[in-house]
Amino acid sequence: MLNIEKDENGLVWHCRVAALLLRELPSNPHTNHHIRSAIREASVAIRGKHQKFPKNVDFYSTAARDQLTYGDASGLVREHVVPVSIISKKIFELNNPIEINIINIVHEWTILALITHKEHELLRENGLYDKMPKNWCGVDKFSRYKELAIELFPTPT
Question: Please, which residues have CB within 8 angstroms of residue 110's CB and are 6 or more apart in sequence?
């Protein structure tokens, strides 16, 4: 379990804010915006917002890896493999939106990848920027990338 006092990246606090908003305020575009923002911040906090590439991502694309091999990190994009909109939907559907339940969903569904700007635009052009493919079964977290033949590799440890 995370130690709240030592949560320097803010994961627990962002999830706590989301839980508080979900439980205490009515659902409307304004509160929902803040809930989604807290979820996004929590998902980034998992890997450490201020760490340098590639330590703050779990995977990178072939093109991003090749670019990094030559010492060039320009134009690379840190991307949520499962869009935050999908993670947020899972949290909005919780029957009991308490901090630990939100933390568990954020942990389970957050995977960060480093891709090129061109690959990022490819996701956008194909309607997969903030959505999973239409035939997504709800299990394969990498289906957006598979659909566009973007191969991801784990970052070295």
Answer: 43, 46, 80, 82, 87
The number of folded domains in the chain is: 1
Can you tell me whether residue 59 is helix, strand or coil? strand
Q: How many CB atoms lie within 10 A of CB 19?
A: 22
Integer CA distances (angstroms), 97 to 57, 73, 90, 128, in order: 27, 38, 10, 27
Is residue 105 a contact partner of residue 87, using CB atoms and an 8 Å limit? yes
pLDDT digits (tens, 9 = 90+) for 42-101: 998 887 655 565 568 899 999 999 998 888 888 899 999 999 999 999 999 999 999 999
Q: pTM for this structure?
A: 0.88
Contacts of 60 (CB under 8 A, 6+ apart): 54, 68, 113, 114, 115, 152, 153, 155
Question: What phi-psi label fits residue 10: left (phi over 0), alpha (psi between -120 and 50 degrees) or beta?
Answer: left
Q: What is the span of the domain harbouring residue 86?
A: 4-154
Contact, 56 vs 48, CB < 8 A?
yes
The residue among 48, 63, 76 whose CA lies nearest residue 152 is 63
SS (H, E, C) 126-155: CCCCCCCCCCCCCCCCCHHHHHCCCCEEEC
